[in-house]
Structures are given as C-alpha cells and as structure tokens.
Amino acid sequence: MKQQLSALLLGTALALGSGTAAFAQDKNVKIGVLTDNSGLYSDLGGAGSTLAAQMAVEDSGLAAKGWKVDVISADHQNKPDIATNIGRQWIDVEKVDIFMDVLNSGVALATNNLVKEKNVVMINTGAATSDLTNAQCSPNTIHWVYDTYMLANSTGQALVKAGGNTWYFLTADYAFGHALERDTSAVVTKAGGKVIGAVRHPLNTADFSSFLLQAQASKAKIIGMSNAGGDTTNTIKQASEFGIVAGGQKLAGLLLFITDVHSLGLKVAQGLNFTETFYWDLNDDTRAFSKRFSERMKNKAMPSMVQAGVYSGLLHYFKALEAMGGNPHDGAKVVAKMKEMPTDDKLFGKGTIRADGRKLHPAYLFEVKKPEESKGPWDYYKLVGTTPADQAFRPLSESACALVKK
Amino acid sequence: MQALYAQLLVGLINGSFYALLSLGLAVIFGMLNIINFAHGALYMMGAFCAYFLLDLAGIGYWWALIIAPIAVGIFGMILERTMLQWLSGLDHLYGLLLTFGIALIVQGIFQNYFGSSGLPYAIPDYPKIFGFNGLQGGMNLGFMFLPIYRGWVVVFSLVVCLATWYLIEKTQLGAYLRAATENPTLVRAFGINVPRMITLTYGLGVGLAALAGVLSAPINQVRPLMGADLIIVVFAVVVIGGMGSIMGSIITGFALGVIEGLTKYFYPEASNTVVFVLMVLVLLVKPTGLTGRAA
Question: Which one of A199, A221, A280, B138 is most buried, counting C-beta atoms within 10 A?
C-alpha cells in the first residue's frame, strides 16, 4: 500500500515536472475545423477541410521537430448559435488554439466575436462576407481565400464591361447574400451600370421558379446570383429550364465553387463566368497537391478553394509558431507574427497579410468550359483574366477597420 | 396581373409534389397507423434510383418512372416486414422514432458516398413526336414561359393522385383495406390475408414517394438531403389536410403549393414559414385538420 502510494506520488511529481517543462516551451497545438459537415455547403468545406488540415499537419513536418498537433472537427449546421456553443466548448474544454474554415458568413461573424473575446485565432477560408476585415475586423482573425468585395470587383466589373449594364439580384436572405449583393451593387453602379431590383430567398431553397420568373420579368440583362452551394446550382439548373439564358438574359454566378460545377455538369454550367482564387489545374504544384488530396477523398473530389485555403493557411500558421519557438497560446500575438511574415506556399503562391487581417493574393476570372473542351472529370475551367493581388481586394483607403485607422 | 398567373401556375407545380408525397403519407397513416418519417428518404431514394438506372444501366426517364417506384416500394416492403410490423398496436411515437431513425441512416449513407451537392439528371429528350423534343423546352403561354416538363409534372401527378384515391375509396380492394384498418380480426375471419395487405399498402405509399422522387430528379439536383428539406413541409400539409384523409391531402397539397407560390411573390422572405403559420392556425381552429375525422 505504502509502496503504491509513493509510486503514485512519484508519478505525479514526474508529470508535474514534465508539465512545467512543457509550459516553458509548449509545443502542443490543437486545430479545430468548424464547418458544415452535413448540409448544403458540406462539399465545398466539410470533410475535405478536415482532410486539408490533416495534410497540412503532415506536410509541415512539425511532428519530427517535437510538436504535437491535433486536428478536431465539428458540424456547425450553418447555425451561428450552435457554432458559438461548439466554439466555447472547444476553447474552454478542448483548449483549441485555432479555428479553421468556418464557412457561412453568419457563423463566421458570430465566431469572429468569440475568437476575439477568448483570444484564440481564426483563419477563415470559407465565409464570404467582406465585413470580417472591414467593420468587424479583429486582431485575432485572418480572412484567407476570398471575400464578397473581391468577387464583386472581379466578376461584376468584367460583366459590366462586357455590356451587362442592368442587374437583378437573386439573394440568399442572410449575412452573406446581403453582403455580396451590396458589394456587387456598388461595383455595378460605379462602373456605370444600374441595379433594377432584387428578390431575397430563404437559405436552402429547393424551388427557384417563382424567383426566376420575377427576375425574368425584370428584363435585366444580368441576373446576379448572390447565393452559394446548393442554392446556386438549383438556380442555374432551373434557369435553363425556364429559358432564361435562351431569352437573352445572362446569369452571373457571383460565388461558384468547383464542386458546384461538378454537380451541375458542363452541359448546364458551360459559359458561366465567375471568380476563384484557387483552381487545382493552375500549375504543377496545385496539380500535385490536388492529386494527393483527391486520392484521399471518399468521392475522389478535387479540392475547392476553401479546402485549399485551410491547407495554405495552416502552413503559414505553423511557420509563425516555429518562428516563435513554441505555442504562446495567445491568439493576437500569433496573428501579429503571421502578419509580419510574408506568405509563400504552393497553392496560393507568394502573398501578404494586411493589418486588417486580409490575406492578399491574385484573383482569377474563370469561364466554364464547353463539354467538348473538357479532357475529363474535373477539367472544367478556362482562365480568362487575372486581377493582381494588390488590386483584387478592398483598398485600405476605403477600409472601416479600426486596426487600420490608428 | 400577368405575374400573378405565373406564380399561381408555379405554385400548382410545387403543389403536385406536396400532393404526391402527402398522399403517400396519408395512405400509410390511414391504413397502417404509422407516421412515416422515412418518407423523405424514400423520395430521395426514388430520385437516386432514376439516376443509377440512367448512369449504370442506360435506362432512361420513362422506364425509371415505372422501375424506381417498384424497386423502392420493395425496399419499403422489406422495411415493413422486418421492422415496422412489430410496432403495430403500439403508440404512434414508436413508429415515428423508428422511421425517423431509418431516414437518418439512409440519408447518412447516401451523403457519405455522394456528398451534398448532388448529381445531375437531365430532362428526357425523347420521344420526339408532334414536334416535341421529349419533355425538353417550353411554350410561351403569353403570361409566362412554361417549361413542358413542369406542365407534365402537374398533369401526371394529378392523374396518379386521383387513381390512388379511386383505388382506395371506390374499389373492392380499397374496401377490404379500409375494413382491415377498422377491424383486422373480422376481416381475417373472411379469409383475407391482412398482414400481406398491409405490407402491400406500405409498398404503395413508398412507391408514391419514389415516384415523386423520379419526377423531381430533372428539376432539382439529385441530392441526399432533398427529402429532408421537403418532408417537414409535407408533414405540415398532412396535418392541415387531416391525417389519414386521402382526398384531403391531395387538395391541401395543391392548395398549399399555390399559397406558398403567392408568398414567394408578395413576401419572399416568409416563403419558408407560411405553411407552418397556416398549420398553427388550422390546428387552433380545427385540430383534426380541414377534412379529418375525429380520432
């Protein structure tokens, strides 16, 4: 009995000792991938984002240098309240250091507040709202892949230039849809176009015929789809049924992902213009990564830009941690370090992170190939234009972010 | 005014899906006393069945309209034989929980393999007769452009709904069925195999769901969650129409489609909720539903 007790005490003492040693140079990191694992956005984020995070951990080589990095994942079901609950539990109980993906703008804005309050990190690769680096900007958040301002700027500008000067919006009725409609309207008006009207549909709508009829009746040249995922694919499919494109109106997919194009099929999707910041077939590096990624995906899908962003963002985060020699468990400090260092990875190339948390890289305007142009599955895009990194996003001079105005 | 006509027609189209689905639910509830929460998943399976037939076997839409309901109906009958039949005589809640569980499992499996964005399924382009290109294209009605496929959906589902109503309310077989729900022991005494009849009825209800699934495949993406999104609305339709009333659920299905269509025009933000507001109102005024009998 006595022996057992002393063994136990010894064990405790040892554990304590190693505990304090770890504190001096803590090399534990916990990554939480908070995403839509079951709903309409789960193909563009979801399990693929978690896989991208795991691949980033493997490719970083941190394990060999004595780091212990864990990845956990949860389904926020596109509900901000559920996301905040999971987030609190992750920070308080699981000791999560960094939130990845966090798609859905409503969820992202709620998580943004939580992450700031608890001083952890969020690298948002999934949400679109440009408010994350504008009015709602935070010292703990980096917005990695794209945002509504950039989409509007690239796609909107190109379409107005091509003669699409009257617009009607089909808008998903929540933070993201409103932000995209607002930012695109601004670009259209600035370029000399006119916005005739808009209709707001609830998130996750199956039948768009009523809304499409209203858009058709508006006689606008461009019908701008301020929605995403399943909502966009249903809109496009049903628009072709109602003869909208045949009638001379043009659909503008303001936010489209490769998974959407895959699900629509080229026959329906051909000719659509839209903007992304990543495509698997851009260069040798993106092809190599995407091949590895797709082999490990259950449905053999190529990575979306959201998933690629998770990989790229985490690699930069790891670089910052390595430069700091350990994990300080201080979100704002890590983000400040990340902003100091230029970014460079195989998927998004060289870039920088601005004071407002905006990651800068080029934006690519794509056109969906015709079925006869495609060489096989996932060969879907033609590059038609590139906006350089310094012009793709909202200029700091227009920013309402408190971090900039100092 | 023109826009209004168009919205009414669009409402009717959606109403046909509601009618087909709520009809299946009403048949199952009326005859088996089971609240079939798996209905949405079975609807989804119908659409996937059509997709597989085309993708793997090259069998097109018209055959799928026949094969998919039979295939999914057989799946339903297996469910009834192996699981649901043990719950007869128990509280409704058990059937609801079991079928809800089945729905989650089926959806989970499909989602695991096919993701959430769905698969494409084209509108059939044959037969090419009378200048029609199958069901593709559309015609200009003056007040709107009506896709031929949508017109077909309304006509076809109306025919199927009325045929089902006739089968159950007006034929000898239907009379046996209704008698068997009232007093199974007595009907059995006349030499009728009641359990087999119940299994076949469940198969019929499930087949109707699968049929709706095939009909919707060319309009919506074939998605694992297509049923989950729809089933809640359809349940509201059944509750409004009166649980177990065949004609009630057909009429309510079409009517609610129209009301929802009008909401999409006048106040689109509320189009997701208007059906439920109506449900609450109906329950407050007439708890058995518009055409339901007192339990």
Answer: A280
pLDDT digits (tens, 9 = 90+) for B122-167: 888 877 777 677 788 788 777 778 888 988 999 999 999 999 999 9
Domain annotation covers residue A204: yes
* Chain B contact set for A41 (CB, 8 A): 116
Q: In terms of residue numbers, what domain contains A163?
A: 149-281+363-392
Residue A99: phi, psi to the nearest 5? -100, 130
* 3-state secondary structure (DSSP) of residue B182: helix
Please indicate whether, in this complex, the C-beta atoms of A38 and B111 are within 8 angstroms of each other.
yes
Contacts of B271 (CB under 8 A, 6+ apart): A201, A202, A205, A210, B260, B263, B264
Which residue's structure tokens are 């010894």? A10
User: Is A5 within the bounds of a domain?
Assistant: no
Q: Are residues A247 and A161 in the same domain?
A: yes
Check which CATH number belongs to the domain holding A71 and give it: 3.40.50.2300
CA dist., res. B85 & res. A356, Å (int): 62
Q: Decide which of A349 and A9 is more confident.
A: A349
Task: List residues bridging with A31 in a β-sheet.
Answer: A71, A98
A75 beta partners: A35
Q: Give residue A93's pLDDT band: very low, low, confident or very high (50, 70, 90).
A: very high
CA pair distance A94, A82, nearest whole angstrom: 16
| Structural domain count, chain A | 2
| Set of chain B residues whose Cβ sits within 8 Å of the Cβ of A262 | 117
Quickly list H helices, A191-344: 209-218, 230-241, 258-264, 266-269, 284-296, 305-324, 331-340
Is the domain of A155 the same as that of A255?
yes
Q: Is-cis flag, bond preceding B224, omega within 30?
A: no
Both A385 and A268 in a single domain?
yes
**What phi and psi, each to the nearest 5 degrees, are found at residue A21?**
-60, -40
What would the mean pLDDT of A323-334 be, rounded to a whole number? 94
pLDDT digits (tens, 9 = 90+) for A297-311: 988 899 999 999 999
pTM: 0.82
DSSP string covering B47-69, please? Answer: HHHHHHHHHHH---HHHHHHHHH
Q: How far is CA A236 from the centre of its chain?
A: 22
Start-to-end Cα distance in chain A? 65
Q: Is A65 on the interface with B (CB under 8 A)?
A: no
Torsion, Cα A363 A369 A375 A381, to 10 degrees, reads: 10
* Beta-carbon separation of B123 and A43 below 8 A: no
In a domain, A16, yes or no: no
Looking at CA atoms only, how far is residue B289 from chain A in angstroms? 26
How does strand A28-35 pair with strand A68-75?
parallel
Q: Are residues A109 and A194 in the same domain?
A: no
Given CB atoms, is A197 within the 8 Å cutoff of chain B? Answer: no
R_g of chain A computed on alpha carbons: 22
Task: Flag whether A8 is in a domain.
Answer: no
CA B100 to chain centre: 16
Question: Given CB atoms, is B104 within the 8 Å cutoff of chain A?
Answer: no
Distances in Å between the Cα of A388 and the Cα atoms of A134, A150, A351 are 20, 11, 11
Q: H-helix or E-strand containing A255?
A: none
Q: What is the DSSP letter of B147?
A: E
Instruction: Determine the length of chain B.
Output: 295
The answer on A246 and A378 residing in a single domain is: yes
Count other Cβ atoms within 10 Å, centred on residue B174: 17
